[in-house]
Amino acid sequence: MCKKAALSRGVCAQVRAGPVFSATATRLTHTVEPDAFIELDKVSFAYGSRRILDGVSLRIARGKLAAIMGGSGSGKTTLLRLISGQVKPDSGRVWVDGQDVAKLNTAGLYAMRRRMGMLFQFGALFTDLSVQDNVAFPLREHTGLPDTMIRDLVLMKLQAVGLRGAAGLMPAELSGGMARRVALARAIALDPDLMLYDEPFTGLDPIALGTIAALIKRLNDALGATAVMVTHDVHVSLNVVDEVYFVADGKIVASGTPDQVRHSADPFVRQFVDGQPDGPVRLHYPAEDYASQLGLGGRHG
Ligand SMILES: Nc1ncnc2c1ncn2[C@@H]1O[C@H](COP(=O)(O)OP(=O)(O)OP(=O)(O)O)[C@@H](O)[C@H]1O
User: Fold this and answer.
1) What is the value of pTM for the model shown?
2) Is 13 within the bounds of a domain?
3) Is residue 135 part of a domain?
């Protein structure tokens, strides 16, 4: 049975047939609330000796759209990599739909990723493929559907982002906002259960940005997908997400609904909501003492 809005009603059952998060995969018993789709439990992670995340716990309920915000280099993308199994925690656990991601073997990870749609900065379309071939790509890779059915699915996805008429164009012929919408159509091609967005609004003008944000919300609701969105665009995201997590110093320092965020007195939250350059989030990447690096000894003149 397809999810709610059945963007691809009638065919999605075939698209989704296969061992995605299969019953045969290891399903470890884990006492989380039944509607938790993503759960991080005391996750710590370092690149080499550099600690990025330090005991992060969060829980995103099935069907919710959560934003992750934080200063540059605070580890937001790393969180997405942990959820998609691209990196493993040094300690703690990452659960996606009840599965311990770090324990999945290659086949298990492949099956899980088939259930994920990802939209990264700038969309990254294949420049030598037309719009329709870009959207068809995951369908050709992951399903054995006949060409006619793939064509219809592609048209449905493009219709969902308002670009059915652009099916025959090449990426070079698209505006930035159109390209992002095509990338979104491609990301939802397999009717994902989980959508990961890494700064999906980067480089867009305000109108295109608002369009993408509204589409993300609408498509997510239609798919019934759970989604995690790393973003710096506080005000736009507060209009579309269900909850926000703020990351700083390797930890979740605040979280709440958009309303709670808007009215929060927490200094981290205020810095983001009000766009203050000064605050708990530091501008500077950690560095050795400036004066001594300049050879000024103890003087700080
Ligand atoms: N593959 C890697 N190897 C070593 N260090 C890395 C690697 N990827 C990221 N880092 C470092 O880890 C830190 C966290 O990176 P991450 O990309 O998660 O941050 P972010 O919060 O998404 O940042 P931004 O908002 O600037 O994109 C950064 O300081 C970055 O330099």
Assistant:
1) 0.81
2) no
3) yes
Identify whether 290 is part of a domain.
no
- 23 within domain boundaries: no
Residue 152 belongs to domain with CATH number: 3.40.50.300
pLDDT given at position 9? 32
**Which amino acid makes up residue 263?**
H
77 in ligand 1 pocket by Cβ < 6 Å? Answer: yes
Question: Is the Cβ atom of 73 under 6 angstroms away from ligand 1?
Answer: yes
Residue type at 63 in one-letter notation: G
Number of domains comprising the chain:
1
Is 5 a residue whose pLDDT tops 50? no
Q: Is the pLDDT of residue 285 over 70?
A: no
Ligand 1, atom 26, lies closest to the CA of: 72
Instruction: Kindly give the number of the ligand 1 atom that is closest to the alpha carbon of 81.
Output: 18
Residue with CA nearest ligand 1 atom 28: 73
The domain in which residue 231 lies consists of 36-279
In the predicted model, is pLDDT for residue 191 greater than 70? yes
Instruction: Band the pLDDT of 276: cuts 50, 70, 90.
Output: confident
